Amino acid sequence: MLLQALPPLANVPIEIPLLLIDARRFAPFLSSRTESSTVKPSLIRHWIDAKPHGTESGRRFQSVNPEDGTVVAEALRGGADDVDKAVDAAHRAAEPMAQTTPSERETILLQAAALLQRDADEFCDLLIREIGSPIGKAKMEIEIATRLLKANAGITRRLTGRTYPSDIQGRWSLGFRRPIGVVAGITPFNVPLIKGVKQASTSLATGNTFVWLPSEHTPAIADRTARLFHEAGVPPGAMNVVFGDGSEIGDHLVSDARVAAVTFTGSERVGRHVQSICGAEGKRVTLELGGKNPLVVLSDADLPTAIQAAIRGGFIYQGQICMASSRIIVARSVYQAFLDGFVAAASGLSLGPLREPTTMIGPLIDSQTCDRIRERLRQAVERGAKICCGGQWSGNRLHPTVIIDVDEDMLLLREEIFGPVVTVEGANDVDHAINLAASAPGILSAAVHTASLATAMEFAQRLPTAMLHINDSTLQQEPEVPFGGDGASGFGREGMETALDDFTRWQWVTMRGV
Question: Which of 36, 361, 452, 496 has a Cα at 20 to 30 A from 135?
Answer without folding.
Answer: 496
